[in-house]
Write a structure and sequence with these properties.
Blueprint: E1 2-7, E2 28-32, E3 38-41, H1 47-56, E4 63-67, H2 73-76, E5 91-97, H3 104-110, E6 127-133, E7 136-140, E8 143-149, E9 157-163, E10 166-171, H4 179-182, H5 191-200, E11 205-209, H6 214-217, H7 228-237, E12 242-246, H8 254-268, E13 274-277, E14 283-285, E15 300-301, E16 314-318, H9 321-333, E17 337-340, H10 344-354, E18 358-362, E19 364-365, E20 368-369, H11 370-381, E21 389-395, H12 402-408, E22 412-416, H13 420-436
Parallel strand pairs: 3-4, 4-5, 5-6, 10-11, 11-12, 12-13, 16-17, 16-18, 18-21, 21-22
Antiparallel strand pairs: 1-2, 1-14, 2-3, 7-8, 7-15, 8-9, 9-10, 19-20
Helix pairs in contact: 7-8, 9-13, 10-11
The protein binds zinc ion (2 copies).
One zinc ion (ZN) is lined by residues 10-11, 72, 74-75, 173, 247.
Amino acid sequence: MQVRFWGTRGSIPKPGPQTVRYGGNTPCVEVRTGSGVLIVLDCGSGAHALGHALLAEPNAPRHGHVLITHTHWDHIQGLPFLGPLFDARFEWDIYGPRGFGPSIRETLAGQMQYSYSPITAGQFAAKVRYHDLLEGSFEIGDVRIRTYYLNHPGLVLGYRIEADGATLVYATDHEPHSPALARGDQPPLSADERQYAAFVEAADLLIHDAQFTVEDYDRYIGWGHSPVEFAVDLATSGRVRQLALFHHGPMRDDDSVDALVELARQRMNGSGVDVFGAAEGMQIELHGAPVVRAPARVAANVEARPLSVPTDRVVLLATDPQPARSLAAAVQADGGRSLDAADADALLRLAARHKPSVVAVQRQFAGHDALELCRTLRETVGQDLTDPAIIVVASREQEIDIAAGVHAGVTDWLLWPFKETYARARMQLWALRGACGWSPLPLPSGETRR
Ligand SMILES: [Zn+2]
Ligand SMILES: [Zn+2]
């Protein structure tokens, strides 16, 4: 599997003399497999040069697959400049996450409306197909792809790509789920954190968000990015072979990225992981375990689950007024309904009557402990951790007992204060996981639920 970086910068293109070594273009990574499958990870401004290279290459694949992590501008702004989209000899499949809002096709077409762009998506000369993705897995020819929701103020998918016996994980725009993890401690892991660790495990190359350092982090909680220390710890514990630090912040010049890499190497402390800063133009060949290669099937064979978005989505809130206001706004922004419970009895009654997809309960609510309420709620609404998802809202100072929460049937924790954009993304993914049948990993050995 060959990997080439065309854009490594986060947030906004940052060309100039200070960024010549690592590059100023926003995310775009090309992947080619031995059987000739072409995958493009994100379509930031780096896609412009990639497009020209594909057009100039006599035997370039004529069929490409663009996997979009999310539709923040830095990850899609290069799409209208990807030359082969305007060449009838090419064929493209474009994939991206869909929440409760517009389809990936509609969102991408939105940035090419007349007000923003002289050309529209209707002018692509290539044959283009769009695919809305959920968390799950699908195949493109002999390439196996798994998707996983990352933690960001927007619905983001990470991609795990397995081909030629090698594994590449592309996980950018992700913030550790808990501040303790972000600060480099080793707290007990929540269901989501364990799932994330499994998602990156044993990758031959992990391309990971490393926009901040632990020192910066407190100023940027909720921005949806990782300190480099977290990326290092994740790679080390997951026995990753190579770690590419990615999504360099727009304020980070080349020397500053060098310093990040040095910090990462020191933290690796001889763990054997090869860490480097992703740089524009860098090419990497991944060799996994030798495999008997399946015959080449370059045509897409998409098996992503069809998206069935629940239309009458109810979120039940048993929280303090401030987080309740923020959560209600987040739910309504995506077309859902929120209901407020006044006390524990109302919570149980409303849960039984309305079958909510998410229930958010304050750590201490109306004289009750959330875990105790969660145990009682599970008797009524069932034991499936995603249907409904039960979320405990706690302040950053309150004790968070992950293991006790799992035993009580808690799906996840949400720390107050949070930004509404962040709550909106979390609300979407909890409801989507319920709709697509997500099942969390079992607890580490020795621990059982209930
Ligand atoms: Zn980004
Ligand atoms: Zn983003």
